[in-house]
Design goal:
CATH topology of the largest domain: Immunoglobulin-like
Helix content: 10-25%
Number of helices: 9
Structural class: alpha+beta
Radius of gyration: 29 Å
CATH architecture of the largest domain: Sandwich
Amino acid sequence: MAISIVLTGLAGLLPSNVLANSGPTYWQGYPASEVMLVKENSPIIVKNEDLTFDFSDYEGRSYTIDGKVTATYHMVNSTDQAQSVQMAFPVVAELASFKASDVEITADGSSLPYEIYIGDVVENYRNNSEENKKKAFDFENIVGTISDKYYQAENFEIDEKGKLYTINVKPTTEQRVNFVVDFRFDYNKTKVFTKGFNRYERSSDKVRIAAWCYEPETLEVYVLGEDIDIKISAFSDGELKEKTDLFTHHIASQEMEVKSYLMKMATEDNDMGSNENEMASVKQQNTKILSEVQLYNMYAKTLDKYLEQGMGFSSDSVLTDQWRLRRIIAFVYTVEFPENSEKEVTVNYNITGTMDMRKTSKPLYYFDYILNPAKKWSDFKNLNIKIITPKEAPYIVESSIQLEKTSDNTYVAFLESLPEDDLFFTLYSNEKVSKIDKSLGKVWRNLRYFAPLLMGFGKIFTIIIVAILTVAVIRKRRK
């Protein structure tokens, strides 16, 4: 009984979310945005918009809160001519996990076909400067990515022919080998791209790349410009001191244009391993729905950038990483307006908030919505906003506009015209962030840093107490 009381008392010394592996204190979310015109000077006006944020179905399965946004635009063509209007809807997502089926676009209830365009990478949005936020969702920048033209690189031509070395390596025993390729090159005359290697050393014009091979592996070296002389060796250690001949290898070479090689990379990159089957499946689907121009441009821009930074050298990781980076993805579609007509255009999609528990005892959830694209319409009136909050965080404690609470979990606002600034709001579990919340947040934050240490001392202290009590019991029995 005494022992159980001691253990219970120790468990109560620290809050459970400190003692347990309770997850991160910050989780980055990204903004949502209004629909934007691809070409300005359209005569179409937005008579009113119904904008709904619905978090009621959130089930607490992720570190932050996500929900559904429905934006319904009542648009009017008041001219005597039919109008074919191209629109773009930008989202922020990773290509490796983004599902196009999560976005639904309709006009008068009928689904609209769309094309997808890959935009720029978006850095940490909420912690970024206002200037960088505006650049990330700048109208001209996003519309500028909506192009079917191939990217013009500085370090290579799209039809330039390079030499692809394909190296098949096979250990002859169960012992792994550290396969090494040495070569020299002048980066003013030669550009080198490698695939499958995980070690890179360079001194002036001397380069050494290596890859651990546990089983048969296929490695690649793609050379643009003046050719290189490849020298092969292998080692049994990581320091590359103990040579081994317990391997076989075969080198084949062929000419291949830059475009063909990058498209080959785009296809092969869909294989992400058996542990990531779902992500690999999504990537496979996205490779099929993205145009050849979009895939080439994403890879070509990246390769061009890193060849410049790497003084003529780059590797496959910078390309495969592009699938995992958060970037602007634009859905481009066309709405046909007969003369003197109205259309109801609706966009449904998901939104994810930023979770922040660095200053409070419970998480704050921030949501951003970019309104500036709506200013490009000929006229925009009557914005109706409804926010349905989740039970985990039913209160809005901060907002860029005045909101009226109409029920336990519903807030509304009506604006006759667009506000000057973009929309943001913050969800919280309490009606307001009190001084106690902030004080407890500071305490919990400090305890998280020392939790492992405190838990270590707690275990030692428990062992000592148990030992003392055990000795006391034994002595008592002997008496």
